[in-house]
Amino acid sequence: MSSIFAAIDFETAKSHHICSVGIVTFKDGVIIDEYHALIQPPNNEYNWHNQQVHGITEDDTRFSPNFRTIYPEIKKRISGIVTVAHNESFDRTVLLKTMKDYNIPHTDLVMQQRWECTLKMYRNKGYKPAKLDACCKVHNIALKHHDALSDAKACGKLYLIAQYERLPLF
Predict the structure, then answer these.
(1) Is 103 exposed, middle or buried (0-12, 13-18, 19+ CB in 10 A)?
(2) How confident is residue 2, by pLDDT bands cut at 50, 70 and 90?
(3) What is the per-residue pLDDT for 94?
(4) Residue 19: CB partners within 8 Å, gap ≥ 6?
(5) Cα end-to-end distance, the chain, whole Å
């Protein structure tokens, strides 16, 4: 039986308005698909603080598609499979609020009510801090922090490590 999951990360322009998505699909521990897109947020508006975090600006998304255009790509990559995020409550909430903004019913996306959360997993393992960059440093995982694709890839690798560590030792 094969094991498949998708790790996802969103960057936001302000509030829950998405400006970037990264999704990395793993099958049997191997990356089989990577997807990244810049997304034009409503009115292409940004909060200055968010720009300082991820470096994405109005100029970067001026000609990017909006969420409605990108949504089918997101749906085909996460619908019906285990979805993982480093702070799942943030990423899942951002997605659901954005879907609501675009009048896309949440039932359109077949997904678990709660995703797997590597932040919680590593907190439960005693990591302090358990932020994505700190966990990646401990496990020597390459990371360009706050780049949605890099964050998703790193999250997926952390999830694999956490799954491996759950296996009984023989």
Answers:
(1) exposed
(2) low
(3) 97
(4) 11, 12, 13, 38, 39, 40, 41, 46, 50, 54, 56, 60, 61
(5) 21
Lookup: tokens for 165: 């560590």
Which residues have CB under 8 Å from 41's CB, separation 6+? 12, 13, 14, 17, 18, 19, 61
Residue 1: DSSP 8-state: -
Residue 91 structure tokens: 């990423």
Work out the average pLDDT over 77-84.
96
For residues 96 and 36, what is the distance between their CA atoms, to the nearest angstrom? 19
Q: Which residues pair with 5 in a beta bridge?
A: 26, 82
| Contact of 33 with 77, CB cutoff 8 Å | yes
**Of 110-114, 127-131, 134-138, the least confident:** 110-114
Q: What average pLDDT is seen over the chain?
A: 94
pTM metric for this prediction: 0.94
